[in-house]
Structure formats: C-alpha cells, structure tokens
Amino acid sequence: MKRLEKLYEGKAKILYKTEDPTLMIQYFKDDASAFDGVKKGTIVDKGVINNQVSSRIFQYLEENGVKTHFVKHLSDREMLVKKLDIIPVEVVLRNVGAGSLCKRLGVREGTEFEVPILEFFYKNDDLHDPLINDCHAITFGWATKEELQVLRSSGYRVNELMEKFFKERKIRLVDFKLEFGRHEGEILLGDEISPDGCRLWHWDTGEKMDKDRFRFSMGSVEEKYQEVYNLVCSDLG
Ligand code: TMP
Ligand code: ASP
User: Fold this and answer.
1) Whose CA is nearest to atom 8 of ligand 2?
2) What integer pLDDT is reported at residue 108 of this predicted model?
3) What residue owns the CA closest to ligand 2's atom 5?
4) How far apart are CA 92 and CA 96, in angstroms?
5) Mutate to test the pocket of ligand 2, among 9, 11, 92, 198 (most ligand atoms within 8 A of CB)
6) Of ligand 2's atoms, which has the minimum distance to the CA of residue 197?
7) Which of 10, 31, 32, 94 pairs as cysteine with 175 (C-beta 3.0–4.6 A)?
8) What is the CATH code for 3-82?
9) What residue spans in the chain does CATH classification 3.30.470.20 cover?
C-alpha cells in the first residue's frame, strides 16, 4: 500500500490517504512537543520506536478482543490504519498519581489507586485540552451518551490488559491517554500507544521511561524510549 496526498499533519504524526478510501497511512515523526506545543524538540528515532511499540500493543489488544484502527505495520515509520472520524474526547486512565491530577487535586506523586481513575478531556489545543464530564460532551455534541459508555468500558478494559502486558515486562503503567473514532458504524481505538502518551515507570527502580523525560528535561530520553522498545518488543523474534 502506497501513500498518496497528505490529509492531516499533527505534532507527532502525519496522516496520508491511500488508494483505498477506508484506509490511511499513519506516519510517525521524531518531533516532540509538550505543554501544548510551547516546548518543541526532536527525539531521535522516536517515530520508529513509537510505530513498533504501538503496533505491538494494538496487535495484543486486538488478540484480546479490543477493536482498534490498526491494520498493519508497513515500514519503519508507517502504519496502515482504518480511517476514523475522531471523537474529540480524550480518555485518560490512571493507576498511580502523576501529572495534572497531582497538580489539580493535591495528590502526592506515586500514590497507588485501588480502583483506576478514568477522566475525559476535550481534545482542543487552543483551550489546552480541558477536563470535561459527560454533560459537556453530550450537550456540545462531541459524543453521544452511548458513545461515552463505549469509551468508558473500552478504556477500563484496555487499562486492565495493558497493566498486565507492561507488568510482565517490568514496567509500571502509571497512566495513559486513548483516542477513539467512528468507522463504518463502529467505535475503534485510534491514534498511538507509546511512551509519548503513557507514563511508564521501571517496576524495580521507579525510573521514568516516557515523555516526562523530555517535558522536564531529565536527559537520557532516547535511551529510555529504546529501553521501552526493548522490553515491549523483545518477544517479536
Ligand atoms: P496529564 O497528567 O498531563 O493529564 O496526562 C495524563 C496522561 O495523558 C499521560 O500519560 C500523558 C498523556 N497525555 C497525552 O498523551 N497528551 C496530552 O496532550 C496530555 C496533556 C497528556
Ligand atoms: N502532546 C501535548 C503537546 O504537544 C502535551 C504533552 O504531551 O505534554 O503539547
């Protein structure tokens, strides 16, 4: 499958049309941004790693009954995906306190949650992706009540599966963000699942292995992304 014209360029990925109107090619860049694009930079070979890691996780989720947009890992930086009408509601799952939740609610970083916390955010950079609830999404037409129910149940299921997957690879899944979209009457999990959109701490050392290293200029960004790749994709053969 060849890529045709560019459909959309985001901060970390580009979407291209293909000869099949129902399929697109998702191209992974090395560009990194944080704090709504205020901080910009490059993480060398991030695109290659995120494409591999996402492909492996989508494949695992599909094997466990989760419907995703993933079709095929095409090349180093290209993934073939089903075309989605993206729902502008980001779904965040949290197992351990970190990031915006700690700031917002005064929770100590590292607090373990007995029950995972699910949050919805409105996908809108100009508004800095604000926290929302069901009423906002329904009233302003971002998603229906039924769709939110699918996002919620799918979010919890993906969290269960991913926590197990990462634990087996010595990684603590602290939190992560999911995006969903509509495709031929179904809701599919979209976007990517990588150290860009997850907080991943080493199980034994607690060391951060995700985009927080770039956000807070902690150093060894490439090395830690590579370590995630090694742990996640070690069973690829
Ligand atoms: P937060 O603590 O900043 O709300 O982030 C929660 C999770 O969502 C974290 O794993 C990082 C991810 N995330 C994104 O993927 N994109 C974003 O724009 C933001 C703000 C967070
Ligand atoms: N991805 C967002 C940005 O580019 C925020 C973040 O991940 O911190 O600004």
Assistant:
1) 34
2) 98
3) 34
4) 12
5) 11
6) 7
7) 94
8) 3.30.200.20
9) 85-236
pLDDT digits (tens, 9 = 90+) for 203-233: 999 999 999 999 999 999 999 999 999 999 9
CA–centroid distance, 125 to ligand 1, in Å, is 12
Centre of ligand 1 to C-alpha 20, Å, is: 32
117 lines ligand 2 (CB under 6 A): no
Pocket of ligand 1 (CB under 6 A): 92, 99-101, 129, 175-177, 197-199
CATH 3.30.470.20 fits 85-236, yes or no: yes
Q: Per-residue confidence at 237, pLDDT binned at 50, 70, 90?
A: very low
Determine the distance separating the centroid of ligand 2 and the alpha carbon of 196, expressed in angstroms: 8
pTM equals 0.97
List every span in the chain annotated with CATH 3.30.200.20.
3-82
29 lines ligand 2 (CB under 6 A): no
